[in-house]
Design a protein that fits this description.
This protein has 14 helices and six strands. With 295 residues, the chain is an alpha+beta fold. It comes from Arthrobacter russicus.
Length: 295
């Protein structure tokens, strides 16, 4: 597979994202008169340009992914014209190369201090993940939260691969499965904006697309999301229904590497997490990918 220059890739992704969001709006959504003669859905480019007070030709070039400069003020005006939410506007700025004076480096280092925190979180699940959803370290409650990570590390060691390729995930989340997947894909796309054209990221998208029609559909929807504050409810095969709150803490100012702390949403869930920890008390308190550890 050939890989584009990351800047060219980002420009094309930005253009595609803007076209997608433009196609979702109708004239009356933005206070413009409608027409039944439109051959394609959504606003016209000249309408977006008018709303954002930019030239039509310039905006056309922006959607085409051409090498043009766009200021923060202009992109903010375009974001407003397209009625983007804060996550979507941040995505536009990232793809345009703004607010990135220091490019985040994907941290692969899990220190002994990190492992100590993960261990002390028990009986609450805790793990360290990177932007691609690789699980770099975990405690034993997290290990058995849905299906044993260490039994199939090549699949279950990445939450996206597990979500779309592991039947236990669909069973665990039941009716909320697609909602959970939608949020994961939206956050993954937001993370990937800083890594366009990088082989490891592109290859993961290709693998997931080939693996799952649902992933392919969600990926094409181009939704972006930075955080998720929802209480997640799922059925653990060992202790039953759990209501859980997932909290993300970024490590060492590296926004691509995060500690995921899972806390119970009620007393029953807390008791069941304690029971899950007791069931597997003979297993190591925490584990990690050996290649990622640095003392």
């Amino acid at each position: 597979m050939s890989h584009q220059n990351p800047l060219d890739h980002a420009r094309l992704e930005l253009g595609q994202f803007l076209r997608d969001r433009r196609s979702r709006l109708r004239p009356f959504d933005v206070g413009l008169p409608g027409s039944n003669r439109r051959r394609t859905p959504g606003l016209r480019r000249e309408e977006v340009a008018q709303l954002a007070s930019v030239g039509v030709t310039w905006y056309t070039w922006l959607e085409q992914g051409r090498n043009i400069n766009a200021s923060e003020q202009v992109l903010a005006a375009i974001s407003s014209a397209l009625q983007l939410n804060s996550d979507e506007q941040r995505h536009v700025f990232t793809l345009a190369g703004l607010h990135q004076d220091v490019k985040p480096v994907e941290c692969q280092e899990v220190t002994e201090h990190h492992l100590a925190v993960i261990e002390k979180m028990s009986p609450y699940p805790c793990a360290i993940q990177n932007g691609k959803y690789d699980v770099l370290a975990w405690n034993r409650v997290y290990r058995f939260l849905i299906s044993d990570i260490e039994a199939q590390p090549g699949l279950r060691g990445n939450c996206l691969l597990a979500a779309f390729g592991e039947p236990d995930w669909r069973l665990a989340y039941g009716e909320r499965y697609e909602e959970v997947c939608r949020g994961m894909v939206a956050r993954f796309r937001a993370n990937m904006a800083r890594h366009l054209g990088e082989p490891g990221w592109d290859e993961l998208v290709e693998r997931l697309t080939a693996m799952s029609p649902l992933f392919a559909e969600l990926w094409e929807s181009r939704q972006v999301q930075r955080t998720d504050g929802l209480i997640k409810v799922f059925n653990n095969q060992h202790v039953g229904i759990l209501r859980m709150q997932f909290t993300t803490l970024w490590l060492d100012q590296q926004r691509d590497t995060r500690m995921v702390m899972v806390t119970p949403g009620d007393d029953l869930s807390a008791a069941r997490l304690a029971e899950l920890d007791r069931i597997f008390a003979g297993e190591p308190a925490c584990s990690r990918r050996e290649a990622t550890v640095a003392a």
